[in-house]
Amino acid sequence: MRHRVERIEPLPAARISGTMYFVFGLLGAVFLVLFDRSAPGDWTNVALAIGAPFLYGLAGAIIGAVGAWLYNVAARRFGGLEFIVSPVDTVVQSSSVPDA
Question: Closest Cα to residue 53, out of 31, 78, 79, 84?
Fold first, then answer.
């Protein structure tokens, strides 16, 4: 069964992208604080560690919105991404001990 992504809503794309970039910024901030080799009393890296996740999140939201908009422009002109899906049979296994 073929499906085509004709449009990506910019606001949800911005929210998801911004959240992901914020999390990546948090991870980077943790490493920045853990491996801080600056002089004692220098709070520059601490300030960066606090501000970086928010700046990364804002940049990610902007990138996500602009990326969705660009996709929508290209999809209108050239057609959207197509993908093929097929149903999957799911088998629920019991949590009992297997027979010996």
Answer: 31
Number of domains in the chain: 1
pTM above 0.85, yes or no: no
DSSP string, 9-43: -HHHHHHHHHHHHHHHHHHHHHHHHHT--SPTT--
Residue numbers of the domain that contains 9: 2-37+44-84
The residue ranking higher by pLDDT, 35 or 72, is: 72
Handedness of CA 29, 50, 64, 9 (dihedral sign): positive
CA gap 100, 88 in Å, rounded: 29
pLDDT of amino acid 62: 98
